[in-house]
Structure formats: C-alpha cells, structure tokens
Specification:
single chain; mainly beta; Immunoglobulin-like; six-stranded antiparallel beta sheet; 1 helix
C-alpha cells in the first residue's frame, strides 16, 4: 500500500489568533480527542475526534492542521466514515519511501481549532470572538518514519479487501545440510551504533557490506563496545553491559536494521529490576542468517495455496502481516492456522502457503486476518470462496531428509566405502545397502525379520534340519520305573540367533500283559566342554559334555491295548526354547525312554509292556518362525489315550 504522495497547502493554525488556548490532555471540553499517537509512524496514523456539542457552536467547522519539524504541512485525510459513537477518524500520512518527499523525523505538531460558545470556566465567549474560530488545542508528537505502524487497522466498510485463492504444485527449496545441520552465512563488521527510538531498537552502519533482506530472521550480535552503553546504571552488579543479541525483524535500508528486543540488563541482587540502554556509540557486530545461496531447489513437489489479496488499503493503520486459517466448508469446529506471513507495503500482494496433506481433497475455505506491526488483529477479516486442493499427482523426485528420491529409487544420501548408497529401495522391489533392519510388530511384540548388522534372517519357513532318524527305539518287557534309559545322542551346533527347536516323532505305548504301563519320552541338551586352542592340556575334552538340561518330556499311558502319538510341528508341546547356555554352542541332544509299569510285576509273559519311538525329526528355527507356530507349551505334557 505504498502511499500515494499527496500534498496540500493550508493555513498554519498556530498563527491564528484565538480567545481560548486549550492545554488539556485530550480536550474533553471542546474536541474530545482520543487515540492520540505517541509516535507518528510510517503509513496512516490514527487520531480520533468527536467534538463536544455542549461547548461548540452547532454547525461550525473544526479545522485541523498537522506540521512537521520544519513547519511544513503533513498530509492527512478525514475519511467519509462515522463511528458508532458519532466520532470521526483522522488519518495522518507519514511517508518513508518517497526520497526527498519523505516526512522528516523529529517533532510534529497537531493543531485543532473550532468555534466555542463558552470559555474554559463556562463563561460565554466575548462578542468580538463569537461565531469565528476561537479555541485551539495542540499536541507535539515525535515522527519516526521507519518505525512499524502500531495504529489499529480499520477498513472502510464500503471498500473491503478481497481474496482469491488458486492451487499450484511447486518444488521445495531446501537448506543445504552439512553433517546433518543447516549451513549458516556469517557476516562480521565494525563501526555500528545502536539506537533505541521510542520502543524500537535499531542498528545502523556507515561502512562495509550492506544489510540485505536475507538477514530478516537472522541473529545480530554486538560486542567490543568502544564506550559503555548509555544511559549508564548506578545500580550495582548488572548482569550484562558488554554484549547484546537480538533477532532482525526488518531491514529498513542497506545501512539500518530493526531488532526484535531492546538492549537491557538485569541485576544479580535485584529480582525483577530491568535497566534499558538507549545508545551504543560504536561496536563490532556479527550477523548469522540463512542465505539464498545456501539453498537448493529439488524436484520434490507439494501443493501450495496462492492467495491474492487486493484492496488491502485501510483508512488507518498498515497491514504488516496476515494470518491464513483453513477450515472444511460446512463443518463445525475451529479454524486451523496455516501460516502467518509478512506482506509488502502494498495494497495488493500474493502469498504462497504450503497446504498440509490432511487438507487435500476436501472442500476448504480460507480466512485471512490482517495484523499490524505489533500483532494486533483488525476487526475486518476476509473469507475465500470454497476450494478443493488436489495435491501433487505427479511423481515426486528430489530430496527428503537424508534420502534422495528419483522415479525408480529411494536411496540414502550416506554412501559406503565403494560409493554405493547405504540403503536403496528400487522400483522393481530390490533392497540393497548395509545396516538393513526390518522388523514386524505382532500383537505388540517386535520380531526382527532381517538384520544385516548381526547377520539374522527370520521368517515363518526359515529352519534348519538337525536330526532325521528313522530308527525304531523301544523298551520292552521291563519295568524302568521313572529312570530313563539313554537310547541315542545327536551332536549338533546351534547357530547364533537360533532360539527354538521343533521335535517331531511317532510313539506307541503298549500295556501288554501288565496291569498298566506309562511310556516316558525325554529329550535333553548338553553343552560341550570346548577348547580355545587346537591343543590344551589339563582337561580331557574328548566326548566331554556338561550336565544336560531337560527340554522336552512327555508321559503316555497305555490303554486297554495300545496308545499312540504322531507329534508334528502343529502338536502342542512340539516347539521348544533352546536353553540360553546352548545358543550358538556345540551340543548334543540326548534322547531317552522309560517303561514305567504301574500295575503288575516282572517277569511278564508275551506280549509284555512296551514303549516305542520312531522317525525322530528335530529342526532349529528363530523367534518369528517359532511365534508363527503358536504351539509352545512348557513343562511336562501328559497325554492319555484310552
């Protein structure tokens, strides 16, 4: 809204002879002035005037004059707008971008003259001053043309701003990464001065490389002061008088920046006390910021809302930022903030705001709110027409975090020693790289399916045949009681990562001529006493194993004739955990039987009681494959067949 340069010639009301000089703060007796600005700032500044009909002549004119520090006219307007309380708005124009026609900084004077019926004491105005301008109120106000406008933003209801919205699919601009951290640009220099104007801190420089717009949002650090900051404090133990840090909120020109916060100090022994400095005569400085040169444009694309605001020309105030909110059309609920962005000093502007994926596809409405330099929101807000953002339907290419994306591959930006990517996902289904870890979550338990660091692969059908024995083993015509008799041993080596074994076999128990018989079957695992070298003396390690540990035991009770069992991988009790001491170790599996006659006494006539086992199969597997079987049951299993 860069203001159109307007000028007008008018009488200097300070030279007018009047009967009453109203020196009150807000002229409650005559003009009822309100919202008198403490500082006249760039753009349109608000002054309200209502007029006291009890003391002013009905139908008389109120004259207004605003002059700068040189005594020249400052342009103002009285918009054709009457407020609810019948007051009027005065809009005072301060120019900051018109070169020689800029409003000079310094003291300005606002003068208001009217025609009064009574003097300050309530007495009638003398006849010679009646029905002519006879009362004057004036106020001196400082001009800071570079300061952000803090007047409330008020639009005329007959000329409200309009908003149009369209969608575009655009590429990202990414900040170059250096070791996983953004790369910053640093500028150093000397000979700058700090000035606090009103409540606005600025830093000015006269030599060296200029300030630029890329520095907005960056950090400015002042140090190495040539003289102490002023005004100095008489209070002891200030916490900071030698350096100053703040963020840059605006680059006013190539030599001047506006900062977010003033230079203050607290005190070690005075809680809550703050001292504000207004001047630093000379200091060294450092500015850290992201520069466009450190940004790269990738082929990654996303949906943007292109928001064009037209007619953003309030009667008073300056639109410094806009807030853009979004809400599904026709649904209840609150608007969601999309972004808050600074806008140029113009009545029309275009802003681009990325649209989150959750808002794609549905019909939405955007709401635009208008903010001044201190974040106060105008009562006027603009609602867009409904729009459905479709999003990017093309292939996505470029970079995302630590990955490169092409039409056929997603690959890590980290490379291995042979310059190949540490991880690549290919369109044809191939996965290549190093340090690949793939896990599956089943009912809250994480199962590792592929771990290339530890060399593990797991699946439902991953297993290793350890024993395949078709020999028939039996105990016949004897009563062993509960004492097991070893039938066979199987030397095996459990590999690292193997966690379970599955034991399958066929078994039969016959009562024969005894009164009752229980067949007992047991499998144990014993770890070998191993050597750390080819030859070691002192311990005989030949066929030497540690005490075995039971891993499986079952009791079968012979019926009237015969009881039998065919134990497969889907039989309860077939899946067993490998003892921790045996995992990744050389071991032997010990298979034993016992004929436990529960009724009758040996010797037995034929056919005597018998326990038989045949076709033993033992397979080792891992956690996920074991879980898929879902058949694990610990402890002894008693199977009774009548």
């Amino acid at each position: 809204m860069s203001l159109i340069l307007k000028k007008e010639k008018r009488p200097n009301l300070s030279n007018l002879k009047v009967f009453v000089e109203d020196e009150s703060l807000f002229s409650s007796n005559y003009f009822k002035v309100s919202d008198v600005p403490q500082i006249l700032q760039k753009g349109k500044n608000l002054l309200r005037i209502k007029g006291n009909s009890d003391n002013l002549v009905e139908g008389s004119q109120i004259l207004i004059d605003v002059r700068d520090s040189n005594g020249n006219e400052i342009f103002f307007e009285v918009p054709d707008f009457i407020e609810d309380d019948k007051g009027r708005i005065i809009s005072i124009f301060i120019y900051h971008d018109k070169g020689d026609d800029n409003t000079p900084n310094g003291d300005a004077t606002i003068t208001i003259v009217g025609t009064a019926k009574f003097d300050l004491n309530g007495n009638p105005i003398p006849k010679q001053f009646q029905n002519i301008p006879n009362v004057r109120w004036s106020e001196t106000i400082n001009v800071d043309r570079n300061r952000g406008n803090t007047s409330p933003i008020i639009f005329n209801t007959t000329t409200l701003p309009t908003v149009t919205v369209s969608e575009s699919i655009e590429t990202y601009t990414d900040i170059v990464q250096d070791g996983g951290l953004p790369t910053k640009t640093t500028t150093n220099g000397a000979g700058v001065k700090y000035i606090l104007r009103g409540s606005t801190p600025i830093v000015q420089k006269s030599t060296g490389s200029p300030f630029n717009q890329e520095m907005v949002g960056g950090t400015l650090f002042l140090h190495s002061f040539s003289n102490p900051p002023t005004p100095s404090t008489l209070i002891q133990n200030p916490t900071n008088i030698t350096s100053y840090t703040s963020s840059i909120v605006q680059v006013l020109d190539s030599q001047t920046v506006r900062l977010a916060t003033p230079f203050t100090t607290t005190f070690d022994d005075r809680v809550g006390l703050t001292h504000t400095f207004s001047d630093i005569s000379a200091a060294r400085f450092r500015v850290e910021f992201f520069s466009t040169g450190s940004n790269t444009t990738s082929n990654s694309k996303r949906a943007f809302a292109n928001i064009t605001v037209s007619g953003s020309d309030p009667m008073v105030g300056v639109v410094d930022k806009i807030k853009v909110l979004i809400k599904s059309d026709g649904l209840d609920g609150d608007d969601e903030l999309l972004n808050e962005v600074s806008v140029p000093f113009s009545s029309s502007y275009l802003v681009k705001i990325p649209v989150p994926s959750e808002h794609l596809g549905d019909v939405q409405k955007l709401k635009v709110q208008y903010l001044n330099s201190i974040g106060n929101i105008s009562r006027t807000q603009t609602i867009s027409a409904p729009i459905a953002f479709q999003g990017n339907k093309d292939r996505v290419e470029g970079s995302l975090g630590g990955f490169r994306i092409t039409s056929t591959t997603i690959s890590s930006s980290v490379t291995m020693s042979n310059s190949s990517s540490a991880l690549s996902l290919h369109a044809d289904g191939r996965i290549s790289g190093s340090s690949v870890l793939i896990r599956n979550d089943i009912q809250g338990t994480l199962y590792t399916l592929l771990d290339t660091v530890n060399g593990l692969v797991d699946a439902q059908n991953v297993g290793r045949q350890l024993v395949s024995d078709s020999t028939t083993y039996s105990r016949s015509g004897v009563d062993d009681g509960t004492t097991f008799v070893e039938q066979s041993t199987y030397p095996v080596t459990f590999l690292p990562g193997e966690t379970h074994i599955s034991i399958c076999f066929s078994a039969r128990v016959t009562k024969g001529t005894s009164g009752g018989n229980q067949g007992r079957i047991r499998f144990q695992v014993a770890t070998a006493v191993t050597s750390s070298a080819i030859h070691q003396s002192g311990i005989d390690r030949f066929d030497n194993f540690n005490t075995p540990e039971d891993v499986y035991s079952i009791i079968m009770t012979g019926g009237t004739v015969t009881s039998s069992l065919g134990q497969g991988p889907d039989t309860a009790g077939a899946l067993l955990q490998i003892p921790d001491a045996a995992k990744g170790r050389y071991c032997k599996i010990i298979f034993s039987l016992a004929n436990d006659v529960t009724s009758g006494t040996a010797p037995f006539s034929e056919p005597g009681p018998k326990t038989e086992v045949k076709n033993i199969s033992i397979v080792s597997t891992r956690t996920f494959g074991a879980a898929e079987m879902s058949r694990f049951q610990s402890g002894d299993t008693v199977l009774t067949i009548a």
